[in-house]
# Entry
Amino acid sequence: MSAIVLGIRFGLLQAAAVGGAPACTPPPLPAAVVEYRNGRWWTGEGFESRTMYSAAGVLRFRAPASVDSVIDLAGGYVIPPFAEAHNHNLHSNYQVQETIARYLRDGVFYVATLSNLPSLTAEIRPLFNCATSVDVIFANGGITASGGHPIPLRERLLAMGAYPGFTKETLQDHGYYIADDSAGVERIVPQLLATRPDLVKIFLLYSDEYRQRRDDPRFAGQKGLSPALVPLLVARVRAGGLRVIAHVETAADFRVAVEAGVDLIAHLPGYALPTRIDSASASLAAARGIVVITTVGLSRRPGMDSTRMAAITSAQRDNLRLLKSMGVKVAVGSDRVEDTSTNEMGFLDALGVFSHGQLLNLWTGESARALFPARRIGALADGYEASFLVLEGNPLEDWSNLRRIVRRVKQGYTLRNFP
# Structure
């Protein structure tokens, strides 16, 4: 969670918040069978001209006995929808309809909100997870140590009016949870699970300096959980049937998270300071199927010293090359409330680690499945959800074609009214 960006965006969010928005009401059922002809469909390796069908919102390769309607894609390039694997801009009713529209306009159908106050989110949950809106998962309050991130950030936003009705005392055990020992883990995990998150977020910061930072007030907000508690936390959350995602800052944090067996890692290490993942940790992450979310754009901050920026960029490139070589799953996420992951893709492209075809697969396939692993999404395959984007031109020839979306289809419904 970016303190700088969140502070700017959410400082007065509740003062500007609008009243309750209408619920996510599905439109009438689509025609039983739709034929999509004259499209060039992404296979994961290239584009293939073919006719596809949607039957009750599911893609089919073979022609059914009858077709109810025909849509001519006019030679457009068809790809799966995009996903934003790390953001915080759908956490309350502040500009929620505008933000939903921005995601859909950019072709982003799947979003992860990786820290939120469930009491604020409760009002807007009915707006999501239907064919005419984005599909969202929520982490609710994360688990940290006393004085750790994100406690000072939450308290600053509270002072700015972001959380009406809350105090510093009531933010705890709602906006965040503290576990300093095993007894704390046993106390707070059931409380957090009772808020019904979709996954659980834990905070690791400078794990190799945990003892030095633990009781030093100079490191408020720049520390996290004891590394020794992480395996127990993962076990308790898993026993509750949920996945664990770890906020990390450094390669040491990455190693702790991987060895404890988390499911996802919320940041590529090193967006604030250069740090390099070791090969053994990357190999273990690959073996365990752990997904690493990029957030490389967090380091692109105005006014940053050019020497430091160059060192961070070099480390990010090295880390991504290592993850790629080891076969670690990578998902695209920005952690920038002004982004929908489209700008993050530009930052990733500039690093030159992945080809355009590989980036397209990360943004569509790996990212979508990281958020909703039980669903058949992220590919244009028989039996998968009929959700896709039609582009004006070939993105492998001109990367900017990813922004030239001429049709959006979600679960068989054509989304309309986009400029």
